[in-house]
Amino acid sequence: MITRQKNKFSFRILVFLTMMSITSIAQNVPIYKTNDLLKRIHNSSDTTYIVNFWATWCKPCVAELPEFEKMHLQKKDSLVKVILVCMDFKVDLDKKVKPFIQKNQYKSEVVLFDESNANEFINKIDSTWSGAIPATIITYRNKTYYHFIEKKLTFDYLQEKIKH
User: For the chain, what is the domain count?
Assistant: First the structure.
């Protein structure tokens, strides 16, 4: 009887610890509107922002994400910040986006972009943007350095374009 109770207790502890570790692995993914993103990246700090627009359903986007993750891991203790802006629908956040991030073990900051009127937000992000993804902004000090790229990128290209 004591052994059976001990096993139930041990099992409950194991389940609890497993749930805690899964929760700690899952990344918080805040939801951003256009103005939230622009306010964040166009400040007067010394930080260089690499902002990549991507989606889980976009093959070139998914193929380049490891390049951004590599940059994040290399520069995580510097004034270079990688922000991965997911363009998936808000309803897919828990079913698609978070599992995708967890499966690939991405440590870069991920935000979900919640905008529906492309005609309005695209020009606010960059007037040259056609709306295609992948697309990336590299910006420093309130646009004193600003570079917009609308294609799949490599780590070497990112390394060449950043200011730090």
Answer: 1
